[in-house]
Amino acid sequence: MDSIEVVLVMLLAVVASAYIRRVLPGSIPLPLVQIGLGALIAAQSSHGVDLEPDLFFLVFLPPLLFLDGWRIPKSGLLRDKGTILELAFGLVVFTVIGAGYLIHWLIPAMPLPVAFALAAIVSPTDPIAVSSIASSAPIPKRLMHILEGESLLNDASGLVCFRFAVAAALTGTFSLQTAALTFAWLVAAGIGAGVAVTMLITWLQRWLTRHFGEPPGSPILVNLLIPFGAYLVAERLHASGILAAVAAGITMSYVELSGHAMASTRIQRSAVWDTVQFSLNGVMFVLLGEQLPDIFHSAGMSLEESGHINRWWLLVYALAITAGLLVLRMAWVWASLRLTVFKQKVRHQPRHKINPRLLLATTLAGARGTITLAGVLTLPLMLPDGRPFPARALTIFLACSVILISLLVASIALPRLLAGMTFPAEPEEQQEEDIARRAAANAAIAAIEKTQVTLMESEACLDPEVYPQAAARVIAFYEHKLKEVDPDSEHAWRKTDYAEKELRLAALAAERRTVFDLARHDHISDEISRKLVREIDLMEARYR
């Protein structure tokens, strides 16, 4: 019962955090509010949460990474794949080496393999934290796509480096050849498992639907289970479950283009996934806040055992490590941009100057999050000879401190850094949207005309005059949509659209009030009321 109560309290904290963030002054990222609520729960609760890292990975990460992979724009991911791979893999290795030596120099009592382990686990950025920060800062779309792609892929490289650093701390040996081969297997098998599981489940679901029909709710539940299946299969193959979940999400986005899912299923599924994303994101950061008091206490004791009496050294170490991570990231991003400019010069392409503010924004936007927390908690308690794992509590505290400081720095600095900057519009997106709208409207008109003829020639046609009138009304709607994307009359139609939108919203609100009033007075049943209100809600969603 205690566990259930704790889960309910944390879910309530997630709900409360969304409202508290609206009340607080400034643009404080939601994760920071949730971490604060978690710390408050820990202060008021008599029993803490015993966080099992393996369970944490399984319950929280697969669905969230699956959804991020599903919803990330694929065109941006493919367009900037070179830059994303440089950040997701090259930057991680560069950070592990540079920050590892920095940490060992700052804290000589921490063995070098443990310092490398800490550097590895704080190297991956967090997609959830990045998305939250982006909601309060005007980050350009292309940069946001690069940051999202980086945060989706660098988890695997960071965790692999962490695994080998921990193994070196336990055994005292390290093999570069073994590490390279293992990394290749983790990546290849992880991606393969994610793609294979998604395709297999999708094929099986379609076969069952074709032969036995589609039970209500079944496609949504299957969709929710796919990331867990991909993650578990990859882990059984000793591959990267995280990359499997991401690959499953990206594969799902291509599967979705087949259009086999019903419209009602897509609407309901989107609402379910939004709820899952909000809940799991929030609970993760609430859990981080709930763990902080115990982590701070254990780290303080570890510091005293190493000879430091003043616990303020913990803050000094945390700030120094975070600053080192920022310097390393800025150096890598600058070198990557210089290489891009050089390639443009060699290929005689138009060259773009490096904007110092965007360079700094890219550096600060690399906030750490729950991957770091979950990974660092997997540190073993004992060495093979029975001695305690060196500086374990201090390592966990410093990793959590980097999460908090990186979130604070990004949330405070980014909105101020990017304030007042104007970014060039992305005309390709608007052109692509106009092309798609025009093609869809023309296809719809052709289908209406063909269907009209078919219906008039069928035996079920009782009144031939009905179909031309109905077709004219529907075609008029699509002709109106074609005029919307006509550049010659775009401005006038925009004004008309605004007026029509306001009138339709007012009419729909009146419809809804009337239906509710009829149901309240028992003039219609609840079932009829829900059906009509759903139709009105779906219509209203088109104009919001």
Automatic annotation (TrEMBL):
Membrane topology: Multi-pass membrane protein
GO MF term list: potassium:proton antiporter activity; sodium:proton antiporter activity
Transmembrane segments: 55-72, 84-107, 156-176, 182-204, 216-234, 240-259, 312-337, 358-381, 393-414
Every Cation/H+ exchanger transmembrane domain range: 12-419
UniProt xrefs under InterPro entries: Cation/H_exchanger_CPA1 (IPR018422), Cation/H_exchanger_CPA1_bac (IPR004705), Cation/H_exchanger_TM (IPR006153), NaH_exchanger (IPR004709)
Pfam family, one: Na_H_Exchanger
Main location: membrane
GO terms of biological process kind: regulation of intracellular pH; sodium ion import across plasma membrane
Annotated Gene Ontology cellular component terms: plasma membrane
Keywords, sorted A to Z: Antiport, Cell inner membrane, Cell membrane, Ion transport, Membrane, Sodium, Sodium transport, Transmembrane, Transmembrane helix, Transport
Subcellular location: Cell inner membrane; Cell membrane
NCBIfam families: a_cpa1
UniProt xrefs under PANTHER family: SODIUM/HYDROGEN EXCHANGER, SODIUM_HYDROGEN EXCHANGER 7
Stated family: Belongs to the monovalent cation:proton antiporter 1 (CPA1) transporter (TC 2.A.36) family.
Biological role stated in the UniProt entry: Na(+)/H(+) antiporter that extrudes sodium in exchange for external protons.
Record-given protein name: Na+/H+ antiporter
Origin organism lineage: Bacteria, Pseudomonadati, Pseudomonadota, Betaproteobacteria, Burkholderiales
